[in-house]
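Contributing new records

If you add data, match the layout below exactly. Sequence lines come first and carry their own label; structure lines follow with theirs. Keep one chain per record. Anything else will be rejected by the validation script.
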Amino acid sequence: MSRILAAVAVAAALTAPTLAQQPTNMNASMQKLESELVPKYGETQRARLQRGMKQVAAFWRAEDGDAAAFEDLVRTHFAGDPTTLDALFNRMQFVFESINGHMTEIGRDLQWQSDLDLGPVYPFDELLAGYAPGAHINDDFFRNKIAFIVLLNFPITTLEERLTEGEKWSRRQWAEASLGLYFSKRIPSEVNLAVGKAGAEASQYVATYNIWMHHLLDEKGNRLFPAKMRLLEHWNLRDEIKANYSLDPKAGLDADKALRRQRMIQRVMERIVDQTIPEVVVDNPNVDWNPYTNEVKAAAVDDAEEGEGRPAPATITNKREPDTRYAKILGTFQASKLVDPYSPTAPTHIRRSFEEGRQMLESRVDAMLKDVLTSPLVPRVAKLIEKRLGRKLEPFDIWYNGFRARGAYTEAELDAITRKRYPTAEAYKKDMANLLVKLGFTKERAEYLAANIEVDPARGSGHALGAGRRGDNPRLRTRVGKEGMDYKGYNIAVHEMGHNVEQVFSLKHIDHYMLSGVPNTAFTEALAFVFQAKDLELLGLGAPTAESQALQTLGDFWGTYEISGVALVDTAMWHWMYDHPNATPEELKTATVQISKDIWNRYYAPVFGKKDVVLLGVYAHMVNNFLYLPNYPIGHLIAQQIEEQMEKAGNLGAEFERMSTYGSLPPDQWMKNATGAPVGASALLHAAEKALSVVK
């Protein structure tokens, strides 16, 4: 299950500093208990008992009781016979599913107003969203000794153990290992609350960071974007760049105007990254802004509905945003750092993110991403893009979108189709079973899945919120405008539907609850990419051909090339924060801007012919997602392996279900079960090279 990714302790934890707080005769107690309990339960239980007692001792504090209390706990709760052990294992699975599931539901309700497009967010809504109701559970379970009972009876395994020995384990052994990891950290509730609060505050900042595009002026005072266009940073801004590769002559959008739009968005993004963006223009339809000169003045047009955006400011200036972006990032770092003392074997969030969250070493992920970034295929694909564009590449072409079949359709045409089909979130919900049948699921399975996924209108760009118990359903969330779901919202909805289908299968159809989920979030991203790649096909806009599939592969390769650099920026930023723990927001901004330039100069400047570009630092995930971005390029690599397997099997629906129900085992083991090969970049690189022979 996903919790296996949240806590991993290794043997060093057994000699953690907490041992100094133990009663002085703890070792004597363990020897005494071993001589007493081994004769009772048999020699076969000696190793289990020894390991269990050491695990309990590693987390035992003076406040938990004296040696007699320790002895009483071990004597009473060591499950030395199979019947008792089975009962304990099953009871813990049942209880943790209930706790995880209901805490997920409570947290969802607390964030309901801030996450969904249901009207204004009041200050009290922000306080509700920042409350983490489950923050004290770990603390409580140590105090009431439930955590110690789990540690006494189920092993805390190291990543190395799971990677080297796990192939011989049964599914039950994997589930027991997951259960043991549940309490491999003893984090105080106030620390968990601080992490939750920092994340909620950063998410609220991100969810309301809109740019009113009709209020952007070029050097001649022209408005390049239509009225009412309100784009969220960075998702919608990036997607608008992508949309402008499809020209719409009927809307007066020629190649020159599209290019000017893309350049203007690039300048907006640059000002967001370096924080020279005027504070007053963020989500404000009451001002006009020239992003080139940074001039701000009162809006000469009114295109906002009542209550939309921020109110008109008392005074209008171009005073820059006061490094708020980086203050929010520092907030997530400082909260994460509070966890470090309670994580002796992964003492930084960086290590927890890779070794626990992804169950992969940072060095391995780094090497896979650089396999893509340094591939000789990159300049070949870049030359092809230049040929298709009829001009030299510019930095924003890192988001080139013309390889996809949708390049044959204008953004306006796609918007019209999706808005008509999905005027509300409910309309998408009603059509979900039909979409799933088109993807390859049987009618019966499609109807079942649709009935087990709820659809909500998102305030932000959209996300998939999983359930924590089998009696609840995951939520699909995407932005639905007043005129209906535009193409961007639809594309996101199809992606999130992939997440939700995986969430249904990996929770409701898993053999052991403790194994629910997938190895890490990159895997659920990969499975979601499989759905997203078929968005136009689902609209009835053409079945794939050899050429369209080759175009799709080249688009995936170029997208992986782009997001790999973004992931390196995110990772390097976190390393910088650990190296400079007392940094100010301004210092972090300066460092992140330089990191963005450095990675650009190394992997992109030779291709684009321009140095010191900061666009790699624009992703909103860097603000509120605690080092999430490496999941995306890993997801692209995994997606290519999965897609190849599904094509080979010839049944997307059945293969998707088979893969999703394998559980949260380590990535290579999961991938070997799914495709027969470990995770890597070779499948994508091979497919891209083959595609270059098709697309000229």
